Hints:
Blueprint: E1 6-12, H1 18-37, E2 42-47, H2 51-60, E3 66-70, H3 75-79, E4 83-85, E5 93-95, E6 98-103, E7 106-112, H4 130-139
Parallel strand pairs: 1-2, 2-3
Antiparallel strand pairs: 1-6, 4-5, 6-7
Amino acid sequence: MFARKRILVFSLPGAFTPTCSTYQLPDFEQLAPEFYAEGIDHIFCVTVNDAFVCNAWADKNDLADVIVLPDGSGKFTEGMQMLVDKDNIGFGRRSWRYAAVIDNGKITDWFIEEGKEDNHPDDPYLYTAPDFVLGKLRESK
Length: 141
């Protein structure tokens, strides 16, 4: 999936959750053409949810450009060292918010929300906002 391509991957705590569904996913979808203009080939959204939930969430959001990838077991997210406990809000193990540009299998840009820890009392959302990521990609040209 990552060979010979420049992929933007972003991850979030869960499908159908407020910030993820109101801002992050729809804004990445809306800004997709601008990311493509910056040399991104595909945009993937990884979430620690099962395929049925991810497919329903993608359908509800009428996605044309963002590809939602389920990580039901959290293995991919764990491999990215972004798996955290969110038991304090009843989620269990989920992804910390991050975005990464992966160029031919190598991470070239990381965007990680501050304060990554198990059972964090807040849900920071700044460095993984689509506008922020796009601005940083434009700056690095």
